[in-house]
Amino acid sequence: MRLLLGFLILLRSTDTAILGQAIASPNNNIGVYSTHRSTLAFEESPEAPKRLPKQRAGYLYPVLSWGPNNQVAGLKEVLALGRILQRTVILHDILNHYDEQQAALVGGQPVQGQALTMPFDLVFNFNHIARHQSVVSQKEMFDAGWDGILDAVLHFEDEFLVQIKNALVLNVSDTGATYIKFPYFNCTEGEIEALGKAIQQYEYVGVIAYEHIVQGAGHGVKLYLTGNSCHDEFLQVTAQLTKSDQVVQLAAAFREQMLMNKSYIAVHIRPYPDKCLYVWRHPDAVNDETKLKEMCKNPRLINVFVGQTLHNMKKRKLRGLFVMSYPSIRDRITEMYRAAGVKPIFFDEDDLEEAVGYRSVSLLGMVEEEIALGADVFIGTSYSSITGIISQERYARGIWPGRTIAFSKTSFHVAPHKDKPVS
């Protein structure tokens, strides 16, 4: 069944949709968006009536690492730091998955019609975050005359210095910049004061960060107030960094047409690391324990995901099954679920191309995350940045934590079986 996504985008307007909203509590209609926030473990700062002004202290430029969701986690860390240091954060495009970046280059030069990045405002609602925090787009800065040269680069670990390449791809340079290292940063008051003084004289400061400002930002951040200012501001940012209207509309259309607005479970199946995908594509390898151990850090995921999915569907009386996974293993996943009597539903690249005019695994994942946000129950894969981001967003929308869990018993050394909540 094809989605009439382009038609829906023309017809539907969501100027006030979803932003700052929550999913109803377990006692109400789970999975249905509410027009009011449900109770959170923290109080979200109120939305300003208009965009917040630039800060006088200067700017922070996020220098982000690895895949799209790792970048999003790092971005939220820099946004949290910007709030604490009272600096304006420069928001820029999100780099596509490295496979897409390689496909978009020939001899180091971009291929016509291929994109290295996803525009920030295609993925996220810039106007919404700008009413909660002082931010500015990179384009606005260039249009205003900024030459794209950083005065200083703040970093926390030498092995991450190579990530400055991602700033260079975005036409931002560290030429002549002073490098400032904080090897032991736990966001204490004294450390924050020292960091602020160290960068005080620099107007444009690049920040190379991934799980350096907030522990576990990409995978297992604590979803409750801890008293650590960076961590707690990170939770606030999570509530305010919402997906764009277009992504929200795509997800809403998918729920309506493919899931028929019925109750559903969303699962994220992530063989880890990437070489583990070989096992999923070759059924004979599943019985080779040596190969499983060699290629996978979660080798038993392939043996447990169907049973645990069906258990939660039966327990919650859910009718639909939405699956997030690499396109290359979707046929295998479909075969395994169908053998158990259930039909998985995927968001396809064909549907995305119909809506936005091109194919992109990176953008596909962003829409999938929004679909997973609206699920009655979400089951993710441990140590996955995608699962981590979805869990954070579900928490920020006030979804009962017991309906956001992870597949358990996925390694060879396991504790007794129990649905594992995502921390």
TrEMBL record:
One of its GO terms (molecular function) is transferase activity. InterPro entries: FucosylTrfase_pln. It comes from the Eukaryota. Keywords: Signal. Residues 1-16 form the signal peptide. This is O-fucosyltransferase family protein. One of its GO terms (biological process) is fucose metabolic process. Gene3D superfamilies: 3.40.50.11350.
